[in-house]
Predict the 3D structure of the following.
Amino acid sequence: MTYDVIVIGSGIAGLMAAIEAKSEHNSVAIITKSNIFKSNSSVASGGINAVLDENDEAEIQKHIDDTMKSSKDLGDSKAISYLCHQAPLIIKKLVKYGVAFDRDENGKILQRSFGGGSSKRTCFVGDSTGSAITQALIKKAKLVGVEFLVNHFVMDITKIEEYVSGVVALKKLDSTVTVYPAKAVVFAGGGYAGIYRGFSTNAQDCTGDLLSVALRAGLSLKDMEFVQFHPTGFAKTSYLVSEAARGEGGHLVNSDGERFVNELGTRDVLARAIFEQMRAGKKVYLDMRHIPKDVLETRIPSLYKSAYNQVGIDLSDELLEIKPVAHYSMGGIASSMTKSEIKGLFICGESAALGVHGANRLGGNSLLEGAVFGELAGKKARKYAFNKEFLPIDYNVVIKNMNLVQRIFDGDCSKNFNAMRISVGKIMFDKAGIFRNESSLQEAFDYMKYLRLESNTLHCIDKSKHNNVELISILELRNALELSEAIILCAMQRKESRGAHFREDFAFTSKEGNRHVLIKELQKGFFKVHYEESGLTKWLKKILT
């Protein structure tokens, strides 16, 4: 099958992109690794930021200022201004699509406080906002005629010179590699925080596969060192305790019963404060016992039920032990207002590094970014594909991936790839997590380099080609190891502390660090990592050449 536009990813960014890309005269498909309901967006619970009155410039400016402040001087002013000005329009569009935001007795959309925000601007649907939005968008996408290609693992893109021409994907059903020609492609496949397996709110398959695809296509990644650790996850299961819990008045207390931090501070500050308590041998708890039970059941129903079902805690009467967990990746594929260096390829959502979040994402801005820039990417993809011809497919890329799959099926293997995957998560959390230093980063890099070599010897024990989960797990592990090296190298390059990146050996913010770090894989296992040139340097080079 051929499509005018292919969107990879079925979260909010991907769904918005597909809806906007679709017209009466073109064909649009969404490719998703599993089923259409599984995405980080669908489990995002807290809410989506927006000033509801599009004419309230003062409040919109406060939203811009809060986002810039949270970015720690690495935010792109153009992208952030666009994000915040589009927010009221996006909420209206989501309501039109059927999202039933919580409202007061007068029918006005309710808004709650979120960490780092100077105003109450977070719209919500209980504590299941992401799920409510994705379900509404799925219905809308189907209504306008978007096709869904489910259970497809994207392995590469094909291109002719600097133009995208198609998507190479593995069909999980029968393990066959196929290519889908396309005039335009949108990457909206999510982030890479799932690499921190065992210490992440993300599903274990959130390994940033599209970022690996981008590296193999010759693109640069940006800001990979900035992984946001959400301050509050269940200590036992890593289940996300939404910021809504603190927005509704929840306290953070240590095992001595002391409140030790401003609960509505930014996530980087809270995560470090909590981890410091844990390193001092104390446990940390969420305390909501002072909040009426009916409020808990109404405002944070999913959390209330999950606390009881997963760990047997009644939040109205008991403390809930929590820990920081990897949650969101600010880094991604270097792009400007969704455009990449490959013509016809657009990037949005957590896959992208658009400069909206910088060094630290403001709570409530992730769903907004997905919706706003998903919409923009879809519009640009539709415009780009209009009246374009399909380009030739580079079948060398297809054959290379077919051979890779066959090699993984061939041969025997005594290594436990699941154990390797778990060890990746633990090493990344311990050595390249909330606190880092040169020694810990070097240890992590050496271990990832070793595992990356070992991953080349992995084979499926189960030789069946029907829904072979081992095959997908091995491919995900290979991608996770590639990105782990990129994360570590970027963290080593940034010899300072800024936002979500904290170096114990460089516990200060430097002027030199007021730039983005870029990384490109020149050939397998060999990276070029450097600070992005300043705007002045770029300008001087341009006029001198």
